[in-house]
Amino acid sequence: MPLELRARAAAVHLVLIAYSALAVGPILLVAMNSFKARNAIFGSPLAPPNASTFSLIGYQKVFRASHILTYFSNSMIVTLVSMALVLLFGAMAAWALTEYRFRGSTPLALFLSIGIMVPIRLGSVAILSMMRNAGLNDTLTALILVYVAQGLPMSIFILSEFIQQIPKDLRDAARCDGVPETRIFFEVIAPLLRPAIATVAVFTIVPIWNDLWFPLILTSSDSTHTITLGVQQFLGQYITDWNSVLAALSMAILPVVAIYVIFSRQLIAGLTSGAVK
Amino acid sequence: MANLRIDKLNKSYGDAHVLSDVNLAIGDGEFLVLVGPSGCGKSTLLRMIAGLDGATSGDIYIADRLVNALAPAERGIAMVFQSYALYPHMNVRKNMTFGLKFTGVPPAERERRVTEAARMLRLDELLDRYPRDLSGGQRQRVAIGRAIVREPAVFLFDEPLSNLDAALRVSTRVEIAKLHRLLKATIVYVTHDQVEAMTLADRIVVMNRGRIEQVGKPLDLYYGPANLFVAGFIGSPAMNFFEAKVESIEGAVARASGAAIDSLDLPATSLAVGDKIIVGVRPEHLSRASAGPFAVSGVVELVERLGESSFAHVRRADDKLLVAEVRGRETPEVGETTTFHAPLRDIHVFDASGSRVGAPMHDQA
Known about the structure:
The structure holds 2 protein chains of 2 kinds. Chain A is an all-alpha fold. Helices cover 73% and strands 0% of the residues of chain A. Chain A has 2 domains: 3-57, no CATH class; 59-267, Orthogonal Bundle (MetI-like fold). In chain B, strand 11 (240-250) and strand 12 form a beta hairpin. In chain B, helix 2 runs parallel beside helix 4 (136-148). The longest helix of chain B has 18 residues, at 166-183. Chain B starts with a strand and ends with a helix. Chain A binds chain B through residues 167, 169-170, 172-180, 183, 187-188, 191-192, 270, 272-277, and chain B through 47, 50-52, 71-74, 77-79, 81-89, 98-99, 102-103, 130-134, 136, 139, 146, 150, 163.
């Protein structure tokens, strides 16, 4: 490789490495310190745990003193159900909007794209009063509804783009074959959307999992708290139980990482190779 | 198998007329080829027969049944796409049986049809492979197999060979011809390649700008093109045209002359003195040796050697180019002035509007 190209590659990698360090550093710090005793956290925050500073006190406290498993399962339920609904409705809406021309399809597409631009939190007050009127206050259903609304516009947008890249001949071939329209979507189009669906899934779940705002305003009892809200109980005005906070946060990272690993395989999987030509 | 009838079919997008008053009757078991330049409406016509595009007006009958309002699957058609359109996430077997599930074919029958189609198309070994693992020719055969298992009344082919390389195209063409004989199927086949059209068709439909220019057997189109468009489209290299004028008429003989050609006696038929006509001669009908009533001279500018024959590009007296086929080793030299002749039976005469004048002379000779 010529020197100039090599230098350029090195520069690019330097920037990428610096960025990775910046992004991963704090997470590493949280995970590392979650395994240390309180004194060691403050004494030498940047040191990895060793024989004398290693402690599982944070994890013990979290499991003993709080409903962490409830929080976890709440977060899981809310995130996975929202994700499933966003993907299902998003893909179906994207297919309908790209494939069928019906009265009002263009205004509908425009309306949905507004959702990308306007943050859903602007409607917090209205959402709160709506949920209260509907009797959904302090339920996971309320959270799921909000997150589905939050995730749909972007997922429709991304999936529409992908659907347009699927050769029209496939759909025509299926129609000639006598495949019903719903089956065309679920058995011909949807399987080809897998990489796109993985992308949308990752885009959808991360903000839901990390969200603090809606659990804060829509849930009030312990049984409906999500993990991000649950962690807050260790953060006090006067004392903060750092062992517990770090332990809970470390655990909260794991599911997102796991889901990302699962979907990232799909993200890089080939799309329609062999479909046409 | 079934016949197919198209009645006054029109298709327009706004002001753009894609098809205008297309009438066509296709017999049971006939291999009909729609041919024309790109944008002539042939693919649209095929998609309308399939039911993938709706008609603006007009009727389509398959097996004497009006199918205008029927979905593609209910029309008894099967279509083979230019891009093959195989389902990429299904193996070959699944690709072929997928549609049958929804049309009420029992599993045992599905299996029988797939086995039979696979044997016919030599796909036995490939049934468990995925489209991405197949070559272009194999994918094409799978696409045809998927059509066969539907046991349709009419097969529709949309430029099925245009993604194959030249050698494969020839062998697949032969296979399609054999398949037609074997299945005795009614086939409507779209192509822009006139060689494909000539070799495969029972009858050819030449289309241009959304209209049918001529329908006929391949050799009838070749020897008796109804108008300038068909004359220029069928045959390769294209027919040479010469502008001429009728100078005099004596009895049944009209004498015509033009800038590039020597004066020429033609059957008078419907010609009148002073008529502007266009005389057409195919490159392969021009010869340096024999003396015919038709003669054209010019300077050779280029010789394309193909082996058995060569094509001489000759600058004519009216400064246009003439293409003439020269057979054997004795090709003219570049820069040489040469005269080509043609017998009367190979001369085509068209009037100023482009329509043929008189019956094809080849048939009378």
